[in-house]
Amino acid sequence: MIVSHEHRFIFVKTRKTAGTSIEVYLAKHLGPDAIVTPVYQPEIPGHLARNYEAPAARSRALTARFRKHERRAIERKRWFFNHIPAEAIRARLGRRIWDSYFKFTFERNPWEKTVSDYYFRSANGKERGSFRDYVLQAALPSDWSLYTIGGQLAVDFVGSYADLDADLKRALAHTSWTAPVELGFEKASSRPKDGASAAAVFDEETSARVATVFAHEIAQFGYKPPLLDPTNSS
pTM of this prediction? Predict the structure, then answer.
């Protein structure tokens, strides 16, 4: 997550959408007053997190207002943290800054996002079961609550992972940004080269669960499910 006071924008970071690459790229062009949250698992060499910690008094004042996982972050003085929801960003910055800055995020086809998350979790030892078990039983990576408030979009622009570079340029065109957009790949893909397409790994039941979990995103952005391989079965 990033706040640039110089360029008056807020980047809300979602999962499996090249968010770390975007964050690292933006951070290296920003000055010392920017708010930049740390990157973990793994940490990125040269990525300078800054201004994300809170004074103890402010931490105590707001600790009780947020959900359990947010309270833990605040108690560790992480006033701003990696995948902080828009509602919490607004509460910390105040409405004047929130309303006047350009806010953007990125989203991804939920079936592709689910596949990416599974292989990432598997490579890091967080998921040991089959893809099918993961889809039917795990908490899938819906980020609707990160960039909405009260069920309504809270950002000014939602870029597409499928059109990453072009949409990042479109977002930054709303600001005073002048640096050329040159994204790196900060987290290597954990996805195997063969047999990892959404069409190859989903069956009707697993595809239906994705449609249920990501119902808001599908309704908002018109995402379509993959054409299933007829040899896949429950």
Answer: 0.86
